[in-house]
Design brief:
Length: about 375
């Protein structure tokens, strides 16, 4: 779960510049590839590392005052950086802070997300246990409305503390004003405006049990029914095992994890689009084939990007070059060790074109792209 790329925002006329010292950890012509889970991308002209909220704000203000392009990086797990790198200031968020008071959790943006999940489970709390193993930082979770295995952070986030580049203030945004939807939020919709500093959650004390299991695969793996509660620790371990089997838990020795996890979001189709899609499926695969379909609000239906990719002929391990589809999951595009960003994008474009030709559905990339596009 990477943070997002931001362009410079002009300083408002009038008022103080609020200049403070920028972070002391500063590098020039700094490699960015090691800061991403893809291990791809060229260098940044300048790299700052901020370890406090004040340092984050100071660095953002300094970039905005000078008109310098700014790239904010968290865990780097949802980020595709071009081979030419970034001609501006890259700001790595390395803030720390885990505060648990009863069922209320506050995380600094730089906290490692999967470690925070483990600590809440150890405390006997429920609500994010099925989000175990998702790489990246806590600050990225509200941006993407991170979700997996039947849970998403929109259900537990109460507030997000951000620095607003438009007003040059630190503000607290309640859940109702975050505009959460599937893998989306107000913060993703306005990437040049907000820099996340802290995220607050309301969890559940269920006596060490999980929240009701919503995801069929998790329930099956645990031998229970959907809607059942299980020990939260067992739910977390099951999810970690399921994710590892798909190459979705980071392992430096496993190139299937040199990825951004799911590279494409699951398509959401309106009524007419879904009917056209069904016709294409039956024409290509036969009338007996039924694609995955899930209600997505109103007359919309969500289908599976992984299913589309596989049925379009892009099976596990597809490719002969240094960028290939994961051998464990068709939704992950991977760097086999010697890839460039252009290698990765060439594969992504091939998959997008193939799926569209087969089913008339256009896949949308989930990772944020910097200096490149599909």
């Amino acid at each position: 779960m990477a943070r997002y790329a931001c362009g410079p925002w002009p300083r408002p006329s009038g008022g103080a510049t609020d200049r403070t010292l920028v972070p002391v950890q500063e590098l020039h012509d700094a490699p960015l590839a090691p800061l991403t889970t893809f291990r791809l991308g060229g260098p940044a002209a300048r790299l700052l590392t901020a370890t406090t909220d004040a340092e984050v704000v100071a660095a953002v203000r300094e970039a905005d005052d000078s008109g310098t392009p700014l790239l904010v990086i968290g865990g780097g797990s949802n980020l595709v950086i071009g081979d030419k790198g970034f001609e501006g200031t890259a700001l790595r968020i390395a803030t720390k802070g885990f505060e648990l008071a009863g069922t209320t959790l506050e995380l600094a943006a730089g906290e490692v997300w999967t470690d925070a999940v483990a600590r809440t489970v150890e405390a006997g709390l429920a609500g994010i246990e099925c989000l175990a193993g998702i790489p990246g930082s806590a600050g990225a979770t509200p941006i993407q409305n991170v979700g997996a295995y039947g849970q998403e952070v929109a259900s537990t986030i109460t507030e997000v503390v951000v620095y607003d580049r438009y007003t040059r203030e630190t503000v607290t945004i309640p859940n109702a004003e975050c505009a959460f939807s599937y893998r989306h939020s107000r913060f993703k919709a306005e990437p040049d405006r907000f820099v996340v500093l802290r995220v607050r959650f309301a969890l559940e004390d269920a006596g060490g049990l999980s929240a009701p299991l919503k995801y069929p695969e998790t329930a099956r793996a645990m031998g229970v029914e959907q809607g059942d509660r299980v020990p939260a620790a067992a739910a977390r371990e099951t999810v970690l095992r399921l994710r590892a089997g798909k190459g979705m838990v980071l392992d430096p020795e496993d190139h299937d994890t040199w990825s951004a996890g799911s590279f494409f979001t699951n398509p959401i189709l309106d009524g007419a689009q879904f009917e056209a899609f069904l016709a294409r499926v039956q024409d290509r695969l036969g009338p007996e084939v039924t694609p995955p379909a899930f209600p997505a609000g109103g007359e919309h239906t969500k289908t599976s990007a992984a299913w589309l990719i596989d049925k379009a002929g892009f099976t596990k391990g597809y490719g002969t070059g240094p960028a290939r589809i994961s051998t464990k999951h068709t939704l992950a595009l991977t760097n086999r060790g010697e890839a460039t960003t252009e290698d990765l994008l060439a594969l992504a474009r091939e998959v997008v074109a193939g799926v569209h030709d087969a089913f008339g559905v256009t896949l949308v990339n989930e990772p944020v792209t910097v200096g490149v596009s599909l």
